[in-house]
Amino acid sequence: MDIPYTVEARPDTGLYNAKVGIWLFLASEVMLFGALFSAYILLRVGAPAGYWPEGWLNVPLGTLNTMVLITSSITTVMAWASLKMHQFGRFKLFHAITLLMALTFLSIKSYEYHDKFTHFEILLKDGRFADGHIIERAPDHIVIHGRIVNDEKALYNLHEKHIQLKEVTIQRSQIKSMERYGPWHNTYCALYFTLTGLHALHVIGGAIVIGFLWGPGSKLWETDPERFTNRVEVSGLFWHFVDLVWIFLFPVLYLL
Amino acid sequence: MEIKSPAQTGSAVAEASHEDFTEFKQHVHRYLFVFYALLFGTLATVGASYIPWGNHEINIGVALFIAVCKGSLVACYFMHLISERRLIYGILMFTAFFFLGLMFLTLSAYLNFPLDTVTPYGH
């Protein structure tokens, strides 16, 4: 038995079923990310003055990643348009670029995550704070590339012009506690990893589907081109949504 | 837009395919324009965030305004919302209603924030 309305429009909706389905799914996704954005707003406006991080993320890398996703969006829509124009070879080319862009995005994001997981805030026994990336570990001391401050509040605003990072040697006997900049570090980090992690999972999921349609799934073009084109359109709608979410995540997390 | 099988031949089909081709050529030009606008918007967002407007709320407003413009371009042109069926608009209106409700609830929760709340920082 064939699945109905995979190509022809259903009389009552005027659309093929998968299109209605993907839009309903995207509606639920809007609420999922909306809930996280609202959590961000509430926690940010409720944060004590001076205790919301500024300049913690690498803006050039974030900008590059935004452009990478935008590029992947246009190649996705061009892949679909190529099928509409019966240019299967161009479809393969555009979707190959989409997959490459997805991989680039995830690679840059992994680099940023790695940077955070190797970044430490170290509370010293004299009450001061050391902050930076560990570049040497010895039995009795560690060396970080960073700085030492008297007040933890000084670590929150990295937009200050006078910040100078250098190699600092800290005796292990001086250390009271150490903590990586992971999701557990503070509210901002928790939100950053939750929002970008969930988004990255969407990128991975979308890339798997696009990869299938680019590879083994593309055989459908030979037997049912209209149905294949519709599949590409539906996967493209999901991919554009992923791009759309990042368009809001980027300024909220990196710039504001 | 009807799609023809690659195996189909005949003058009628060829004529229709030519029309499709011309129409989608025009679409492609539009997609490219949107692409350049999105790249420009990204650079504008970054640039505007470094402008000292004098009030951080203005920075937030400008960045979100540009993000809304960029998001609208993606939704309208890449996701073809500009020429979509009524049913999709209906689904999205429901979504917008509940999304705005969610944001309003968040705001109202903040407005009811107890004044004597003690934070770990003693503020």
What does this structure look like?
The complex is a heterodimer of chains A (256) and B (123). Chain A is α+β, with helices and mostly antiparallel strands. Chain A folds into 2 domains: 170 residues, Up-down Bundle (Four Helix Bundle (Hemerythrin (Met), subunit A)); 61 residues, Roll (SH3 type barrels), CATH 2.30.30. In chain A, 58% of the residues lie in helices and 14% in strands. Chain A contains 6 helices and 5 strands, in the order αααβββββααα. A 5-stranded antiparallel sheet of chain A has the order 4-3-2-1-5. In chain A, helix 2 packs antiparallel against helix 3 and helix 2 packs antiparallel against helix 6. The longest helix of chain A has 31 residues. Chain A is elongated. The mean pLDDT of chain A is 94. Chain B has 123 residues and is an all-alpha fold. Chain B has one domain. Helices cover 72% and strands 0% of the residues of chain B. Chain B is flat, with a radius of gyration of 23 Å. The N and C termini of chain B lie far apart (62 Å). Classes of the chains: A alpha+beta (256), B mainly alpha (123). The interface between A and B is large, with 57 and 58 residues.
